[in-house]
Amino acid sequence: MISRPQRPLCIVISSPSGGGKTTLCGRLLREFPSMVYSISCTTRAPRPGEVEGENYYFLAEPEFQRRVKAGDFIEYAQVHAHWYGTPKQRIEKALNEGRDALLAIDVQGAERIRTLISGPVSDILKTALVDIFVVPPSINVLQQRLDGRGQDTEETIALRLANAEKEMACRDRYKYVIVNDRLDDAFERLKVIIEAEHRRVV
Ligand code: ADP
Ligand code: 5GP
User: Which range of residues forms the domain containing residue 91?
Assistant: First the structure.
């Protein structure tokens, strides 16, 4: 039997802060070793344990703005009082090599990518987007998870929870919404979506 090669995807995962993006992306990268994680640039300070060039590229604001002007980002946005941007080159390279690109970005960034692909872009990018919104079982659980992560100040957590409601209101813009209740179950749902999208005829 001749099987069709799987098509490369631009997988965009959004959720409120603490929703489980980082955890689920880590699992995806282990499950799909050829998947390329998009390392964003940010003006926020590193959290304990975060590594430059692994979690993010941590930039001072003038350097971030220089890259915006140079057109280095496929999208960028201000989120929770800091700037974040997705370098273009890494995404294009992954897709051209037939590999999936994985982006954990906010709702504004996802919207910018939708707008971008509705305009003149390469055929490969035009059909590659798979956008997935991860919801926590409840706002209370979200708060517990943010507290439990133990990496943000009370003030930061309060800001992120306040933004969570607004972010959740954007979930209907996404092709898929999954609930992150039990981690294993949420991951299984995510995996099924990606495997189906790999084989979808476009
Ligand atoms: P995000 O990247 O969306 O901000 P994280 O992946 O850092 O979220 O998850 C926030 C916290 O919640 C982490 O401490 C993580 O270990 C925990 N967590 C994520 N998913 C679950 C789950 N399904 N059940 C329990 N804890 C979870
Ligand atoms: P954190 O500071 O918790 O790592 O991320 C805060 C928020 O910024 C999350 O919603 C995360 O998905 C989002 N984010 C991270 N990188 C990018 C990016 O490159 N672009 C956009 N638009 N959002 C990002």
Answer: 10-197
